[in-house]
Request: fold
Amino acid sequence: MAIRNLRYSNDEILRKRSREIEVIDDKIKELAKDMMETMHKYDGVGLAGPQVGILKRIIVIDLYEEGTQFILINPVIVKTKGEQVCEEGCLSFPNQFGKVVRPKEIEVVALDIDGNKIRVKGKDLLAQALAHEIDHLDGKLFVDFVEPGTLETVTPENKETKKEEKNNRKK
Ligand code: NI
Reply:
């Protein structure tokens, strides 16, 4: 396993649409493990292929609670319900946080790492994380639709308090 280099803010790769994964080979399995390790290293709760420079439809999520760790391949949102206003950040924008509107509940169909079709139902933070990561696969970034006036840049001076406020939820 290895830590992959993250791609940041103005990197054009973050704007591109990722391709479907047709075969889950050893390379994809290694990528999935590396993405999980990279996400953990940076205290993220989610990470998508383009964020490590790979334009493939794969996301990893870990909310650090039992049953909340996922590797999802070719994820598709099949249902959403309600809305929630979320405090959001992104591992590709390490100093920025803002409020975004996300579905309150979400249902996703995907393949797991063994190629089995799975259905993941999430609400609250899991719904937010799923929506955020799947957006990445279509080149969509939270900074584009952040609620006006809520995007904050965390400077070294206010970093600690901001970190606590935002509960360090980076995706
Ligand atoms: Ni992100």
Q: What stands out?
A: The pocket of nickel (II) ion is lined by residues 90-92, 132, 136, 171 (CB under 6 Å).
